[in-house]
Design goal:
The chain has 414 residues and is of the alpha/beta class. It has 14 helices and 13 strands. It has a 7-stranded parallel β-sheet, with helices on both faces. Strand 3, helix 6 and strand 4 form a beta-alpha-beta unit.
């Protein structure tokens, strides 16, 4: 009887997936595109060559855009494996073929970072993007101007947050939608953005490696591409697990990194004090560090309860090097790029999932200097210690995701 029930569950599950896939696969390609000299020239001018994995995935994207049916592809690759450049290439191919592309990021900080990076490419390499930024914190006047440029088609690349899917935004010829850090967007948000065009191509990027078997189930409606190698020069981040007795050494190490001209992240699991949970709070810990531990250093605070504009300001000032230590909650988990940050201290690391810790660790090691990640915990539970040691042993996100799956189970698929 149990076997029969298990069979029913699997059958329903796969049937739903198959229906999803049939729906997305059956869409005709209204925007057939061909590679122009722009992407070739852009690649030749870049200071680094694409890795083998990137070349393979770029070929898959080009084939999709030129085929008879609509692209629905997920690129998953580890932190720093070079997904963004592939998105830029796909958007460039879209612009060069006379259509509009949209790049949707989960946070304003990340959207602005993409906007600045791409504007830099336009200046340095003369590629035919006319980008426009659209985020919630813009003034009503700025938004109106952006809407006008999008509707007239003057802007052929729209970069932003959820602001991209609001009713007021009308696109002239939306042919490609790229969503970054896919797991932050619900399926309905993805489809609302798609509905802004006539079945545009969809490219989804995720730096949260998902075990292959799970990816096929969770993203059954997407073709999956994997970036399984890091570009040359990417640093391996040395990771250590320590107890509270190491506090003085951790503080000395933070000071050493700052003295050498680098910056540090300190991540806490909670925003405010919570007696029951007994975990470090970002607000209180930032105050302690500034007043008693590092009175001579510049300590800043960043957490999810701050107003959007305050968050942007704190993050941008840290990225510009105006602070030595940034005490934060997991709001920094996604995509913030500060090449000068070489140390990540994660307080009460047992409070986070392995994949989340791996994401956080990916915020350092982005420059040329040696980088470190220190996990602190006072939890002596055997399973907890084993789980955290698994993270110290490898920098491979896919291995970590497999380990997480073993230890925590798959969660609820639908």
């Amino acid at each position: 009887a149990r076997k029969r029930l298990v069979f029913d569950e699997f059958f329903d599950f796969l049937f739903l997936l198959r229906q999803n896939k049939r729906f997305s696969e059956g869409l005709p390609n209204h925007y057939r595109m061909f590679e122009t000299a722009d992407t070739v020239r852009f690649l030749e001018q870049l200071p680094f060559p694409l890795t083998k994995a990137q070349k393979k995935v770029w070929q898959e994207i080009r084939d999709d855009l030129g085929s008879s049916s609509c692209m629905n592809r997920l690129i998953q690759g580890d932190v720093g494996s070079g997904k963004t450049i592939l998105a830029v290439l796909a958007l460039l191919m879209t612009a060069a073929n006379g259509y509009q592309g949209a790049l949707m990021a989960p946070t304003e900080v990340l959207a602005m970072q993409h906007y600045e990076t791409i504007s830099g490419y336009v200046e340095n390499y003369g590629i035919p993007f006319r980008p426009v930024l659209l985020v919630g914190s813009m003034t009503a006047k700025e938004k109106r101007e952006a809407y006008g440029r999008i509707a007239s088609g003057e802007a052929n690349l729209v970069i932003g947050t959820h602001a991209l899917i609001q009713e007021k935004v009308v696109y002239q010829s939306l042919a490609l939608v790229v969503t970054d850090e896919q797991h932050r967007f619900g399926v309905d948000q993805r489809s609302r953005l798609s509905a802004k065009g006539r079945d545009p191509h969809i490219l989804v990027m995720s730096a949260t490696p998902i075990p292959r078997t799970l990816a096929l189930l969770m993203y059954g409606d997407l073709d999956v591409s994997v970036l399984d190698e890091l570009p040359p020069g990417r640093q391996k981040v040395d990771t250590f697990l320590v107890g509270e007795s190491y506090r003085a050494r951790i503080n000395a190490f933070i000071r050493k990194q700052v003295t050498e001209g680098h910056q540090c992240f300190v991540v806490c699991p909670a925003v405010e004090e919570n007696q029951e949970l007994d975990v470090k709070s970002a607000a209180a810990w930032a105050e302690t560090l500034q007043k008693t531990v590092f009175p001579d250093l510049r300590v800043r605070l960043l957490h999810g309860q701050m107003k959007s504009a305050e968050k942007e300001k704190a993050m941008a000032s840290f990225a510009r090097g105006e602070a030595d230590v940034l005490v934060a909650t997991t709001v920094i988990e996604v995509g913030v790029d500060v090449p000068n940050a070489t140390l990540m201290v994660i307080e009460d690391a047992d409070r986070f999932g392995l994949s989340q810790l791996h994401q956080l660790r990916g915020r350092v090691g982005r420059g040329s200097a040696k980088s470190y990640c220190i996990l602190t915990t006072h939890n002596r539970n055997e399973d907890t210690v084993r789980r955290l040691k698994a993270l110290c042993a490898t920098n491979d996100g896919f291995k970590i995701a497999e380990e997480d799956l073993k230890l925590r189970g798959p969660g609820d698929f639908f």
